[in-house]
Amino acid sequence: MSTPATPIEDHALIGDKRTCALVTSHGTIDWFCIPRFDGPAVFCSLLGNPDNGEWRLAPASGVTSSSRRYMGETLVLETDMTCAEGRVRVIDLMAPEPSGPCIVRIVEGLEGEVPMESVVAARFDYGRTRPWVRHLPQGADLVSGPEALRIVSPVPVARQEGDITFCFTTRPGERVGFTLNHHASNEPAPAGPHHEQALASALEWWESWSSRCPLEGPWRDPVVRSLITLKALSYAPTGAMLAAATTSLPEQPGGVRNWDYRYGWLRDATFTLYAMMLGGYTREAVAWRDWLLRAVAGDPKDMQIMYGAGGERRLAEWEVPWLDGYGGAKPVRIGNAASDQFQLDVYGEVMDSLHVARRIGVEADPDTWALELALMESLEARWREPDEGIWEVRGPRRHFTHSKVMAWVAFDRAIRAVEHSGLEGPVDRWREQRAQVHAEVCANGFDEEMGSFVQAYDVRRLDASLLMIPLVGFLPITDPRVVGTMEAIQRDLTYEGLVMRYDAVADETIDGLPAGEGAFLLCTFWLVDNLAMAGRTDEATALFERLLSLRNDVGLLAEQWDNDGQRMLGNFPQAFSHVGLVNSAWNLAGGRPADARWARSSDRDRAGAGAAGT
């Protein structure tokens, strides 16, 4: 029987840009993968029970209340816990150690004499394997096959059923530190940093990085918090940008919509880049571009929609039978079969992200343009094919309207690369195909009776991805077909004001899965952007503020929101959601033309370029 699940929103994130950990408000780390984001979890109670691994650090008598915050504009977490004996503060962070992942936890006494307990219950290989334990003068080694952890603290250690337990008492002003280092078991354990030195280094690094964000005003705090989260989901050794920190947090309570998001989706990464580049973080754009060149190296026909953090192609999906799943939601999945899907829209997103990188001053690279030319050649041969679409449906392939719109984007951005960046390519042929795609979408993707664009050519249903049509410049926001689509989505595809991706209840054959999921937060941010572009600023601002209210106490968002249960759903924290927040804030703040992600130049002929195909 599964244990009651800690609410998704009860978690905070710490990380070192190689991997991360989730910390509950009562001081338990229940998710930690080694040696990187998509590696096996060694603390895995998030997807099972305490015997699947966790690190508890809290008053021995229990926590009666807690409050927490990140220290300034950093990823260093402070949690104040109150118990019968007094109050303590726990500071959590991950040190950017070159030798490997390192969790640092510091306990500080605030009031009273508080008996504390720290229990490190490591379970390697996704909560399956108890380690062999070797005690040390100031800690212990925990070994399982090729992997090892070293826990270090001045507190004496006692062994308890294979777990490492520390018992100590805090007094006001006293601080006790713990470090947990990962290393290969056949190599010497790293010395690891002193906990106070690690804290100072982490604060300095994050404060320096965050200070580069130019946005000021009432939304700076949520924007910077989102940018920090996006940076924390980047894999520093390669430049990959990951979709989320977790796997198998359900999109439907107790359901089967449980996916592994710890990989580099090209689509998600390009959206993340837009948000980063708005904030002035061009180095991330260069690092991701270089990762892309390595990941897709080879025949462009073999381009995948996602890769591992290092650029790996093989992401075979398998199920973990020994885990109960979050709140009993099975199966727990590792890997993602969507890596084998054909998703036409990715061409547009990749071409667009490389286009905007050039527009903001990232130096053009001959290898990058050679890749773009190869991708365009592949697109010319494939844009008429059906695909699985942006939502990675596991039903039949279709001619999804959004996918075709993004094919148009790819042709459009390739043309602009020639026209505005001085690059060479078959621009006349691209113009012809851009017009063909536009004409086809307007003829087959719009339903006169509904007065809106539809999900797919053969599916007379709405889809939130249609909100992208004005954002990418396919048609202007004033076009009656765009207005009709936005109004239809507001009327028929929202639940208590938040946007659903599509109506899976009406037709389960769309995605091949049982119906039911929460409101999709990124799609609701897209509605904010549409409203802002349409001049409905008050309405857009009200919806944006409501979305901000859905963040947890430390400013993080999951993928979806359950209006009925008033809780988060889906993997956490989710890059898509934080991307939407950053972009909408920029639009509403008036810092860039609406929509900020897509208004990449002063070009006034974009709508005209599309209109040629109507």
Q: Give the count of structural domains.
A: 2
Shape descriptor: globular
CATH top level assignment of the largest domain: Mainly Alpha
Tally of individual helices: 15
User: Which secondary-structure class do the elements indicate?
Assistant: alpha+beta
**Sheet with the most strands?**
8 strands, antiparallel
CATH second-level architecture of the largest domain: Alpha/alpha barrel
- Unreliable runs: 591-614
Output the radius of gyration. 25 Å
| CATH fold naming of the largest domain | Glycosyltransferase
Question: What's the total number of strands?
Answer: 29
The CA-CA distance between the termini, in Å, is 58 Å
Average predicted local confidence, pLDDT: 91
Strand composition percent: 15-25%
Estimate percent helicity.
25-40%
Short structural description:
This protein is an alpha+beta fold.
